[in-house]
Amino acid sequence: MIFFLYLQVAFGIIGKEQTFPNIVRKYEITWNREMKSEIRKMDKYYSSEFVALLNEASFTKDILGIGVTQLYKANYAKIGTYYQAFTCLSTGVERIGKLCLILDSYIEDKGKFPDENYIRKHGHRITGLYESCREIAGNRKFGFAFPCVLQDSIHQAMINILHAFAQSSGRYHNINMIAGKNFDNDCVKRWKEEVDVPLYQKCVSKRKKEKIKKTAEAAEMMLGDVTLVNYISEEGNEIREIEAASRETGIWAAAVPYRQLYMLQIIRFFVQVLFGLEGEARKVSQEEPMIIPYFGEVFGIFLIRTLTLEAEKHGIYRMNTVVTSEFSIFWKGCILL
Asked: Is the bond preceding 147 in cis, omega lying within 30 degrees of 0?
């Protein structure tokens, strides 16, 4: 706009007696008034349901991002980080699953949202939400850009552990143990046994495993007599030797990228179902005020091809730096939102 005004002055379209800064200021004031007027009008285009859905999606995206980031950091030396990751991921997966069910019901009822009882009956059952979303995707024959069915046993173990943590017996396992309750639902222990160990066996090369072993032996030989180690592993075993600590650290460092990758694939499944429902829901909703948000603008970070496809194609996990339109950065195992 400023360049256009400069040309007008240069060719005499605008009188030279008007100073250039005054002209620019005049046009800026006029433009700002018009924009503020349009922004005030925009309030009429967004319904209360639109705002609620958008806020819920934004919150869900953020806690999923935090959960995936913390999942990368959790190990035997940072047991508390497991609980941070599980809290965020179980909550986030549950919420995005319920968003899918809400939109599906909205489509089936021709533009009517479900009542509270419909949403409450699903509770915190993440495995049930996953199966319901699979059924929705199958019935509606969605065409997904990425693999839809999570058939790997490790994916299923992750979903089952998040489901267990979402239940009170999982979230309050430590309190229950102190209180003398008999059932055992230690999600951190299960994660190590059902997720990390299988990932290490499946995804890490023999050469890498041998290097981890030799590094641990060398650390014990050089530092064993002068180093005090005192940790408790995810399984509850005491770690008193530097060789055991080095080995556990090596296993964690080798397996953790795949741990994060598999979790992203689970999230991506729910995001794709949500995107498919979004398009159909918008067809049955009224145009003004707008009711259905564009969820792609919220959850797009989880569908960026460079995050996962290279790893899936080559069986290698490589984390690239990616900056999206939302200015989210996925870098070195962290999602910074």
From this structure: no
Query: Which residue reads 């949500």 in tokens?
Result: 274
- Give CA–CA dist 283/234, Å, rounded: 49
Tokens of 23: 């002209």
Interatomic CA distance for residues 235 and 29, integer angstroms: 66
146 SS3 class: coil
CA angle 312, 137, 302 (to 5 degrees): 40
265 vs 276: CA distance, rounded Å: 17
Rounded CA separation 216/213 (Å): 5
SS3 of 335, please? strand
Q: Could you identify the residue written with the tokens 């319904």?
A: 47
Contact call for residues 271 and 299 (beta carbons, < 8 A)? yes
**Residues 318 and 311 sit within 8 Å (Cβ to Cβ):** yes
The stretches in the chain having pLDDT less than 70 are 1-44, 145-149, 170, 182-183, 286-288, 305-337
The amino acid present at 137, given as its one-letter code, is A
List beta partners, residue 331: 334
Distance between first and last Cα of the chain:
34
Q: What is the phi/psi pair of residue 6, to 5°?
A: -60, -40
d(CA 139, CA 101): 13
Dihedral angle sign, alpha carbons of residues 293, 297, 300, 305: positive
The DSSP-derived string for 89-104 is: HHHHHHHHHHHHHHHH
d(CA 136, CA 232): 43
Report the predicted TM-score, pTM, of the whole model to 2 decimal places. Answer: 0.77
Tens digits of residue pLDDT in 10-21: 545 445 455 545
Pairing of strands 322-323, 238-239: unpaired
Q: Going by DSSP bridges, is the β-strand pair 322-323/329-331 parallel, antiparallel, or unpaired?
A: antiparallel
CA distance 159 to 93: 9
